[in-house]
Amino acid sequence: MTLPTTYQKLVVTQSSDRLREAVAVETLPLAAPGADDVLVQTHYTGVNAADYLMAAGRYLAPTPPPFDLGAESTGVVVAVGSGVKTLKEGDAVMALAGGYREYFTVPARRAIPVPAPTPDMLALGVSGLTASIALEECGRMTQGETVLVTAAAGGTGSFAVQLAKLAGNRVIGTCSSDDKVDFLRGLGCDRPVNYKAEKLSQVLKTEFPQGVDIAFESVGGSLFDTCVNALAIKGRLIVIGAISEYERGPELVTAPRIYYKLLQKSASLHGFWLMHAFRQMADHAARLIALMQQGRLVAALDSTDFYGVAGALEAIEHLYAGRNTGKVVVRFA
Ligand code: NAP
Predict the structure, then answer these.
(1) Most distant CA pair in the chain: distance in Å?
(2) Which of 19, 96, 222, 319 is the most exposed, having the fewest neighbouring CB atoms within 10 Å of its CB?
(3) How far does residue 88's CA lie from ligand 1's centre (Å)?
(4) What's the pTM?
């Protein structure tokens, strides 16, 4: 295959809360992969809430600029290093690597083979794996329980809703519009709650008096507080993120320490960060792909088109405006 001599990518050049001031488009020579690496042509890149935090310099593990923006991509292997035996040119892969760039290099052991480089396969990456691993390991999810998912109509939440339903649970999902309520119903969510039209705490008190066994929580702020208060005896609250605080920074609160509320219910609070789960990824990815191939799980994709390095910023802004339904993706090839 003839490769171009250069490619473009989006780089964070200075940390800033103003996304467009933090980044620059760079054009670089396309290099051959190292001995244990593969070079991949990007077909789709996933948009994540963490992108904004990274550009602002407030991500969980802040990296000093310059660094590439973006966390996950799917594409086709176009060159392999001399030591790579597991992949060959033409293979489709998904990786928690790459980002908003036309080509990326990744160690072959970190590239997960997928049937095709589609948006569906991309969505299985950060979003699908986070939902799958966190619900199983931190939520200790079984069946017959009540599971509350916040930002349920988003990229990560839409997987959590479906996986909790597939396991045989009752699922409550929060979102911000009636269109998203309809979308969540379509995913099988038993009780979608538009938090702009209904008070979640009241819905939970009235309709779920026994409490919530698992809360898959990624919005933070007062929604987190509502989830803590709604936990059932032995409930598990999984802290996935706190998007409501990403733009303005953490809110400082004064209240009795949370252990009083946890003790009262023998409840637990469990942080989950996908970067600590590399060991489990291949297994969960295989399971998610199988469920999709059986038609039992769908990758819910946002319908707005974004294209190339230039489209990435619009895509991140779209997600932060809460306009997305499902996973936001940027198309490259
Ligand atoms: P997403 O859910 O596709 O999109 C973000 C959604 O958050 C919006 O559509 C919006 O939907 C909701 N939201 C609620 N309050 C918001 C606010 N104040 N500002 C903006 N959006 C708000 O995004 P995602 O990338 O999948 O991430 C969702 C959450 O999961 C984030 O907190 C992210 O950090 C976290 N996450 C964590 C991990 C991990 O490893 N721990 C991995 C993936 C994602 P509605 O308002 O309609 O609900």
Answers:
(1) 65
(2) 222
(3) 35
(4) 0.97
